[in-house]
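Entry:
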Amino acid sequence: MNLTSKRNIILSCVFLTSSFLGACQSAALFLPPTPEPTLTQIPSVTAKPLSTMTATPQPTITNTSTVTATATVGKQGWCSPGSDFPENYLIIGYLPEYRKLEPTWGNCLTDVIFFSLQPLPDGKLDTSRLKPDVLKSLLDVKEHYGIRIHISLGGYKRSDNFAPMATDAKARRAFVKNLTDFCVENNIDGVDFDWEFPSDVAESSSYIALLKETRAAFNPYGKLVSVALYPFPDLNVEPYNVADRIHIMSYDRGARHSTLEQAINDVEFFVSAGIPKDKIFLGVPFYGRTMSGPSNSFAYFEIVENYYPLPETNEVNNIFFNGRNLIRQKACYARDAGIGGVMIWELGQDSLSGFSLLRALYNGARDGCENLFP
């Protein structure tokens, strides 16, 4: 069977699936309609050629529109549980404030990280991006599916206030208290630190102190501290072992920006530095990047809507992305390597159709990779 025939068969299946969504979806959704978060303007990205490990990674801000393609949601949600799902395997997904929460993701995930809040220089916490209706929707999904909800702190162009806060012991103590109080009062399960990036030894030391003090404050409440790290070659990894989890940003690396080989190298980099495997989470991208010319990024759902890629396809029209087979292979690698699981940047870029990467990832973790799509 040639490539065109395979593609036509896939398109027919997707459109047939979409046609009976209405009948299935009304019986499938257990939660009331989720309020759409208030959209905030996100910063534009200046296009730059990507280099390899030595360059500061560029942000991945893609089209913020929601996906119109849909697929049948089963009675148990977007993913079908199975007895073979690894007991301690975690699937963690970031959800920026400019995306819409899809409640039925809940049974594919163990954790959702809302992106993002910001520290202020005096130790206060800027929670303005987390609107009350969005928080309620997140907590509804937590209650229905039994997942954990975290908040992210910082991120690209949102990290300027880390240095003045963290390097001032008084402000740092105030911040830890304010952060702890906020999480306890709002039933938040943990925080994910994403300082991009400490610029010198003093700031790096202050970052470690901030992680230590936050974890000490969180421990009595059973809350978690994670940290997102880009594996720069000169990164001193060992001090970050103080966190409960380490999320490896294994993307934005050269022309083919997130290969399986790179993922394996990144995990081994942290393992060789002495980080326990169960603390390590492999980051996977739900977006593509141009391989040459100006650096542009595309949400996976945009790639689907324009190219309808086959499961084994990772490149279209000068764009490299992680297709369904590659995402599944990474999920299998994380399982077989014995690490904690995978982290997704980010959920709102997936396709809500039979092309879904989240579903492929879940199935890989559950069923393995012996029977990949042809």
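The longest strand covers residues 111-119.
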